[in-house]
Amino acid sequence: MSNEEYKNIAQYLAAAEVEKREVVKVTAEMKPDLSVEEGYLIQQELVNLKLNEGKRIIGPKMGLTSQAKMTQMNVDEPIYGYVFDYMLIDNGGTVSLNQLIHPKVEAEIAFIIGEDIEGPGVTGAQVLAKTEYVLPALEIIDSRYENFNFTLPDVIADNASTSRVVFGTALKRPEQYELDLVGATLSINGEIKELGAGAAVLGHPANSVAMLANMLSRKGEKVRKGDVILTGAITSAIMFHQGDFISGKFDGLGEVSFTVTE
Ligand code: OOG
Ligand code: MG
What we know:
Blueprint lengths: L2 H17 L16 H17 L4 E7 L3 H7 L5 E6 L3 E2 L4 E3 L7 E10 L10 H6 L1 E11 L10 H6 L4 E6 L15 E6 L2 E7 L7 H13 L10 E3 L7 E2 L5 E6 L3 E8 L1
Parallel strand pairs: 3-7, 4-13
Antiparallel strand pairs: 1-2, 5-6, 5-10, 5-11, 6-7, 8-9, 8-12, 12-13
Helix pairs in contact: 1-2
The structure holds 2-oxoadipic acid and magnesium ion.
């Protein structure tokens, strides 16, 4: 595929996001044999497009890092994408349905990085030593593809379905917790819909950041000081509706919530 083709597909996905409509996945007609590498080249064009519009990167994110998510989405490998400033929602704030396509929410543990982490060969222990804070988060994913149906290269091209993020307000030092043992519940209107523990994410969420650093090293990039990184959903993602109050509670780390408006 040519650079021009990657750019065109990136524009196709960017337009779907802006116009809030589902589109046919790339592998359906345009490019049935799209590879993972090509998926990341399209993602890079999509990221460049947003950067050129003046949007800023908050940090890379990991996705499909738990068995629950891999099974739900029918894919078998973790991926990364990027969270931008325009995606941030204040803790306790509102998420407006008419700005999104068919959003779902997931509970995640996030890391704020204190020192650059360069792969390959990075371990979870090395990540913890270079982590400034950990915090709870709710990610709102909104695949641009019809019915959230995609292959691994498709979802990579679509910036890993990234759409909105609510970060918790309490910052905790990582050594205060055994993050693998931190329990998390995801509730709608006070009713627990999903629950799990940090260990669901590659055995320990720090392993997710390590994998990210190792994946980024393939394109000569690294995890950077100041990056705020989502490590991937602990449980399956769930749909929500107008008027819902969504809350994620993380043992010791605190609570994150938002209300759904029209
Ligand atoms: C892909 C994004 C996955 C996660 O935390 O696993 C993700 C999707 O499920 O649409 O963000
Ligand atoms: Mg996620």
